[in-house]
């Protein structure tokens, strides 16, 4: 809107009237002798189109509430589009647990083999020590590598144990949220404590 048009609009108003100017979410500019009914705070202009009071920008949303709400809405939609009922959630949980348990069993087997190898190397090193011979550098290196492999496998086994617990918690959260979205009564846990509602991530 041109300055001449703004001045013309202002001149057509009563002598005591101010002009209000604001911008909507699409960037369109509005002028009126009445403030907007919505929450937008307008600029206030005098009869010559000069700004008497500048609108204050909205306070920044430091908590990103809108972003979180949108993300939660998308997660809810994904949950409802993925599962038809709670039985499907239970089946998905059992599949995830079975895969992680298979990984854990493989790690246990590898860990057993690594420990057996270390025991053989230590036996060989001990035999050489009893005869007064120094173990070759290759044997010492193999022992060090064996210890590192055992430590690595133990770390992976601990992560797998944590993953099993996380799967249980995650799918329990899915079921709670699914019941909320479907308007079903909350299912009391086995220990009798009230269920807690947490963020779920399908």
Protein model, in words:
This protein has 202 residues and is α+β, with helices and mostly antiparallel strands. It has 2 domains: 3-53, no CATH class; 83-182. Helices cover 58% and strands 7% of the residues. It has 4 helices and 4 strands, in the order αββββααα. A 4-stranded antiparallel sheet has the order 2-1-3-4, with helices on one face. Helix 3 packs antiparallel against helix 4 (137-182). The longest helix is centred in the C-terminal third of the chain and has 46 residues, at 137-182. It is elongated, with a radius of gyration of 35 Å. The chain starts with a helix and ends in a 20-residue tail after the last helix. The model is unreliable at 1-16 and 190-202 (pLDDT under 50).
Helix content: 55-70%
Cα shape = elongated
What is the number of helical segments per DSSP (H or I, 4+ residues)?
4
Poorly predicted residue ranges: 1-16, 190-202
Q: Report on the biggest sheet.
A: 4 strands, antiparallel
Determine Rg (CA atoms, Å). Answer: 35 Å
Distance between the termini: 49 Å
Number of strands: 4
């Amino acid at each position: 809107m041109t300055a001449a048009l703004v001045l013309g609009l202002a001149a057509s108003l009563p002598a005591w009237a101010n002009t209000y100017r604001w911008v909507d979410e699409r960037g369109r500019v509005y002028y009126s002798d009445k403030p907007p009914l919505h929450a937008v705070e307008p600029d206030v202009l005098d009869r010559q189109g000069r700004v008497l009071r500048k609108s204050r920008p909205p306070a920044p949303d430091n908590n990103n509430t809108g972003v979180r709400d949108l993300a939660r809405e998308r997660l809810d939609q994904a949950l409802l589009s993925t599962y038809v009922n709670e039985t499907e959630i239970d089946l998905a949980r059992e599949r995830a647990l079975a895969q992680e348990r298979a990984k854990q069993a493989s790690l246990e087997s590898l860990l057993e083999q690594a420990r057996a190898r270390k025991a053989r190397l230590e036996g060989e090193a001990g035999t050489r020590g009893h005869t007064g011979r120094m173990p070759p550098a290759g044997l010492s290196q193999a022992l060090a590598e064996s210890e590192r492999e055992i430590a690595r496998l133990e770390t992976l086994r601990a992560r797998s144990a944590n993953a099993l617990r996380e799967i249980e918690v995650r799918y329990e959260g899915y079921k709670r949220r699914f019941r909320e979205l479907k308007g079903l009564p909350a299912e009391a846990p086995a220990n009798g404590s009230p269920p807690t509602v947490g963020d779920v991530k399908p």
